[in-house]
């Protein structure tokens, strides 16, 4: 470096404008040679780059008078890149003003202005660059996020994540330079970069944003991750507080709804003496460290909604303090035997798995469950109160369950159970065996559950009769036997269920007929209840066996829909406390007995799908249950329709009372002489007479246009009105509103054009019930709507409303946002209905690609509508509409509340640690 070269570089670095200009103007070789020097020939930074790096904006402005190249490239990048490196906003804006390229796809990514601003933590400059060139993030976004995580610039990480940069480090498929990115860091994920430099705050934020925590990262960086997950442990202040003996506070671990593919035992063993509750639900875990199940103080573990195929055993069941284990929605094939030997265990929930046996054996294709001797297995779960094994593949329940002598709630619905063990002594209150393959239920429950069982659900099985054991459940309040093949009711003397409130016998094979038995002497046309036998057997007619003497005073709901009733059993008419009676879809039922009117408390009477005779129009089935029952009560009293009415005309003498009556009756007017006294006459009015005149034309054509005259005449004169009928061509659209898919920051242009042959039509654009006016980001044209700087809030439906003096037509266009979660622009609405009413939830969404709509846990995409034909108390809850577009998901929620006449069943939602807990309130 010669003396002049060194002096000029030093002046540029210090920003000495006078010295710089002196050298440029008075140097023998002129100013051009120094500034035009090839950067590659210098052993130091180019002069212009040195000025930009040090942020001397005044010098930069002067150098442009010497035609310096604003995009002069070097090993340090462009002048703009080094200005971003130095963090000089003024210099950056000056260079951009003079034509500096913000993003050049051909430039090495590490030398771009974006990367230099990110690497050196200049948030303001990076924000400015993104605003000027947002599309650059499609190419550089992932690398910028990795670098920001490595350097620990949390504010920049937050900015990039808000711009929808893939938090797991993937390069978008739409990136134009996906194949050209070759530097090493493109293979590193943001989480790996942050962990490699021990950037704990960044790791915490990434985990908060549901970054993928895979197996390799956990194994390599478990210590850094352990520091980050400390925030997941909070003080536990619930029921275990009173059991605490030391001064150390109890803790609960909250890891649910993350994206953990693996966890490390050290995260939890550090809190072994304090951790009492651990929630690992809704992750991607494939295995659980054995140490977690054996933590000395742990009471509650939730492993639901993962990808677990097996669970570790509990080593010391004698000392284990586990009281609650949840592992629903996994792929478990068996249950660890130790679970049923934990003496403190109170609640075990394993819903929606693939469990084929409760005997912990090696499950394989060659394994035959019939080879296992159930009696050889013993359990010690004497404290177990709730066992939920619904939606599995169980075929039987081992007799070892008899050890659960504290069991109060047993849920086994949705399995393949063909037999149930003999009843055992325990305070069982709720038993759900619906959706299985039971042929009978004869469990000898006498002296076991007769005084405890309150709710029994045996629906969707293969029962052909109601066993004596069921009838002996004295405390039973809810009995569901729907969707079986029950042919007859048991004899009345079987029944002892004096507390029964709800009985569901829908979708069975019950008959009711009107007939006479020759061997007895009952009243003629008495109601009988009939059993259906196989076609080879003779039908036997027996008396109605509904024991109204037993539970007639308590029964509130009776569902006999979808049977084969030919007549309503007479004993049904004696259930005076009945509030809900469903007789729908008994297609042989033609009449209703007048005695049904005795049900004065009944507010819901289901008569759908029936072709009844003798019910007047004002008492149709459906909403007017009270009207039907009122009519039947009147019919029972042998009342007849009354069509007479008294009309009394009172007034002073000589004021025209007699004349008024004559005019109303269409008779000649009497002489104008006062009538003395009271005149009583009978006036018969024909039902067909009317003072309403109508002219109806079903299908108008062009020649029907013209003036029509309506003339009204009475004894006092006549009056007419002219009515003009104008026939125009039906308005329609020549071009309907278009649907668009636009990236954030882009421009959306809707257009529609009405076609009208009868005058001009005005156009308005509406969204969410509001008319859109020009201004701000909206520009409303005669046939178009332009939205500038589109954001995620702009997604949804836009209505093009065209109208003239005679017609209004509407066309709908949809705006979807690219690379964004689906937009649910019509979420389902909350409903409050009565029992038996029809429920309909509607949900609509837009996205790119077009999202599919699913409701709750449906396995196949459903239409936009979710319907419930007849709601009941069991339908109370939250209904979730999920819009899914590739890997992006949006949810919307609606609540269904069901009113049951005097009781209102309301869903209470307690949001605690992002979990929904549901309760019914009476």
Automatic annotation (TrEMBL):
A single GO cellular-component term on record: extracellular space
Keyword Plastid recorded: no
Pfam families found in the cross-reference section: Ank (PF00023), Ank_2 (PF12796), I-set (PF07679), Ig_3 (PF13927), LRR_1 (PF00560), LRR_8 (PF13855)
GO molecular function: kinase activity
GO biological process, one term: regulation of signal transduction
InterPro entries per UniProt: Ankyrin_rpt (IPR002110), Ankyrin_rpt-contain_sf (IPR036770), Dev_Immune_Receptor (IPR050328), Ig-like_dom (IPR007110), Ig-like_dom_sf (IPR036179), Ig-like_fold (IPR013783), Ig_I-set (IPR013098), Ig_sub (IPR003599)
Keywords for this protein: Disulfide bond, Kinase, Leucine-rich repeat, Repeat, Signal, Transferase
SMART domains to which the protein is assigned, alphabetical: ANK, IG, IGc2, LRR_BAC, LRR_TYP
PANTHER family per record: FISH-LIPS, ISOFORM E, SLIT RELATED LEUCINE-RICH REPEAT NEURONAL PROTEIN
Name of the molecule in the record: Leucine-rich repeat serine threonine- kinase 1-like
Organism placement in taxonomy: Eukaryota, Metazoa, Cnidaria, Anthozoa, Octocorallia
């Amino acid at each position: 470096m010669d003396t002049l070269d060194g002096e000029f570089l030093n002046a540029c670095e210090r920003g000495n404008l006078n010295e710089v200009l002196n050298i440029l103007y008075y140097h023998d070789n002129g100013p051009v040679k120094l500034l035009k020097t090839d950067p590659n020939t210098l052993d130091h930074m180019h002069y212009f780059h040195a000025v930009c790096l040090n942020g001397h904006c005044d010098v930069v402005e002067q150098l442009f008078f010497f035609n310096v190249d604003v995009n002069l490239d070097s090993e340090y990048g462009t002048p703009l890149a080094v200005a971003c490196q130095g963090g000089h906003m003024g210099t950056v804006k000056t260079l951009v003003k003079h034509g500096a390229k913000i993003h050049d796809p051909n430039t090495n990514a590490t030398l771009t202005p974006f990367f230099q601003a990110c690497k050196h933590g200049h948030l303001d400059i990076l924000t400015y660059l993104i605003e000027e060139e947002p599309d650059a993030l499609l190419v550089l976004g992932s690398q910028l996020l990795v670098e920001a995580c490595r350097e620990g610039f949390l504010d920049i990480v937050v900015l990039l994540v808000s711009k929808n940069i893939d938090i797991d480090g993937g390069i978008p498929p739409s990136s134009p330079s996906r194949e050209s990115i070759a530097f090493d860091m493109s293979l590193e994920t943001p989480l790996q970069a942050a962990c490699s430099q021990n950037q704990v705050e960044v790791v915490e934020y990434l985990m908060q944003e549901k970054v993928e925590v895979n197996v390799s990262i956990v194994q390599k960086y478990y210590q850094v991750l352990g520091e980050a997950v400390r925030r997941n442990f909070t003080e536990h202040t619930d029921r275990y507080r009173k059991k605490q003996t030391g001064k150390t506070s109890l803790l609960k671990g909250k890891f649910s709804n993350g994206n953990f593919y693996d966890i490390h035992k050290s995260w939890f063993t550090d809190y072994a003496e304090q951790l009492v509750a651990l929630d690992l639900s809704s992750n991607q875990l494939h295995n659980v460290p054995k140490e977690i199940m054996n933590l000395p103080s742990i009471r509650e573990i939730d492993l639901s909604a993962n990808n677990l195929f097996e669970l570790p055993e509990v080593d010391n069941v004698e000392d284990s303090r586990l009281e609650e284990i949840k592992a629903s929605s996994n792929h478990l094939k068996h249950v660890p035997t130790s679970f049923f030997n934990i003496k403190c265990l109170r609640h075990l929930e394993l819903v929606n798995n693939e469990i084929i046996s409760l005997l912990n054996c090696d499950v394989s294709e060659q394994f035959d469950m019939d080879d296992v001797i159930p009696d050889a297995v013993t359990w010690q779960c004497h404290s177990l109160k709730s066992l939920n094994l619904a939606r599995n593949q169980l075929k039987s329940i081992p007799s070892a369950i008899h050890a659960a002598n504290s069991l109060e709630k047993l849920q086994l619905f949705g399995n393949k159970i063909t037999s149930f063990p003999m009843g055992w002594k325990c305070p069982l209150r709720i038993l759900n065996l619906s959706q299985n393959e039971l042929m009978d239920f004869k469990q000898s429950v006498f002296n076991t559950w007769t005084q405890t069982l309150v709710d029994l659900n045996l629906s969707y099985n293969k029962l052909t009769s109601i066993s004596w054991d069921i009838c002996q459940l004295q405390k039973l309040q809810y009995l569901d036997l729907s969707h079986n093949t029950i042919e007859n009711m048991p004899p009345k003397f079987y029944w002892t269920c004096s507390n029964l409130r709800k009985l569901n016998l829908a979708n069975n094979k019950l008959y009711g007929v009107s007939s006479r038995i020759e061997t007895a002497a009952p009243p003629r046309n008495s109601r009988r209840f009939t059993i259906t036998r196989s076609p080879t057997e003779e039908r036997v007619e027996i008396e109605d066996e509904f024991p109204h003497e037993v539970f007639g005073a308590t029964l509130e709901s009776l569902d006999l829909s979808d049977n084969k009733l030919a007549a309503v059993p007479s004993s049904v008419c004696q259930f005076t406390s009945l509030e809900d009676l469903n007789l729908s879809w008994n297609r042989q039922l033609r009449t209703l007995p007048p005695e049904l009117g005795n049900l004065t408390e009944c507010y819901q009477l289901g008569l759908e799908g029936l072709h009844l005779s003798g019910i007047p129009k004002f008492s149709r089935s459906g909403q007017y249950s009270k009207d039907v029952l009122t009519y039947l009560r009147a019919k029972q009293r042998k009342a007849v329709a009354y069509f007479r009415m008294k009309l009394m005309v009172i007034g002073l003498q000589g004021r025209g009372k007699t004349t008024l009556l004559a005019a109303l009756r269409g008779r000649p007017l009497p002489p104008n002489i006062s009538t003395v006294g009271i005149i009583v006459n009978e006036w018969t009015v024909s039902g067909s007479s009317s003072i309403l005149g109508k002219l109806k034309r079903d299908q108008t054509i062009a020649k029907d246009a013209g003036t029509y005259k309506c003339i009204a005449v009475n004894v006092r004169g006549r009056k007419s009105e002219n009515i003009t009928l104008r026939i125009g061509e039906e308005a329609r659209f020549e071009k309907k509103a278009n649907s668009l898919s636009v990236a954030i920051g882009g421009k959306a242009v809707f257009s529609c054009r009405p076609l009208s042959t009868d005058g001009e039509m005005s156009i308005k654009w509406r969204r969410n019930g509001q008319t859109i006016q020009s201004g701000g980001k909206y520009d409303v044209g005669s046939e178009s709507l332009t939205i500038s700087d589109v954001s995620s809030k702009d997604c949804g439906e836009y209505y093009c409303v065209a109208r003239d003096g005679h017609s209004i037509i509407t066309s709908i266009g949809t705006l979807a946002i690219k690379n964004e979660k689906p937009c649910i622009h019509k979420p389902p609405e909350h409903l409050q209905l009565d029992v038996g009413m029809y429920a309909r939830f509607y949900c609509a969404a837009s996205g790119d690609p077009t999202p599919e709509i699913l409701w709750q846990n449906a396995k196949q995409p459903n239409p936009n509508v979710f319907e419930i034909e007849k709601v009941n108390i069991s339908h109370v809850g939250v209904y979730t509409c999920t819009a899914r577009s590739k890997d992006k998901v949006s949810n919307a929620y609606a609540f269904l509340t069901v009113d049951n006449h005097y009781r209102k069943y309301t869903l209470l939602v307690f949001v605690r640690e992002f979990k929904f807990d549901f309760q019914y309130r009476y």
